[in-house]
Amino acid sequence: MQNLRKRAKHLHAVKHKLKTRFQKEYISILKQTSNKVQTSLSVGDIVLISLDNKKRVDWPLAKIVEIYKGRDGVSRVARLKTQSVELIRPIQRLCRLETSGKIAEIMREAITTRRVELLSLKT
């Protein structure tokens, strides 16, 4: 039982360090982009959902499941899957994360399976 508590405490500390590092190194440099850049979103992209009442570091992560276009053929809204629910949000309220390769696949898997695991990447 003691070992389990130590493990839980360690995982909590690692999660806190990762969130702090993510906040300092990545989220602080994200920029709000124009609508022209936002239309480059595609199904499977990982995005932050912009919320007015929360700090950027607390915005939820989501995966784009489907993109809906207006009558003029321009993307207007997207259906998103977060860890707990599916939402429909306007494209303008989404902030795309710059992911690639293994990192994007790991993030997609974590959101899809609704579990957070610590993975070590070997380059």
Strand content of the residues, in percent?
A: 15-25%
Mean pLDDT: 76
Fraction of residues in helix:
25-40%
Strand order of the largest sheet: 4-3-2-1-5
Number of E-state strands: 5
Number of DSSP helices?
A: 3
Net shape: elongated
| C-alpha Rg (nearest Å) | 16 Å
Distance between the termini: 35 Å
**How does the major sheet shape up?**
5 strands, antiparallel
Poorly predicted regions:
32-39, 115-123
N-to-C order of helices and strands: HHEEEEEH
Organism: Trichonephila clavata (Joro spider)
Domain DUF5641: 7-97
Pfam family, one: DUF5641
Protein name: Integrase catalytic domain-containing protein
Keywords:
123 residues; alpha+beta; 33% helix; DUF5641; Integrase catalytic domain-containing protein
Architecture overview:
The chain has helices spanning 2-25, 35-38, 101-113; strands at residues 46-49, 61-69, 75-81, 86-90, 94-96. With 123 residues, it is an alpha+beta fold. It has a five-stranded antiparallel sheet. β3 and β4 form a beta hairpin. It is elongated and about 60 Å long. Residues 32-39 and 115-123 have low confidence and may be disordered. Residues 7-97 form the DUF5641 domain. InterPro entries: DUF5641 (IPR040676). Pfam families: DUF5641.
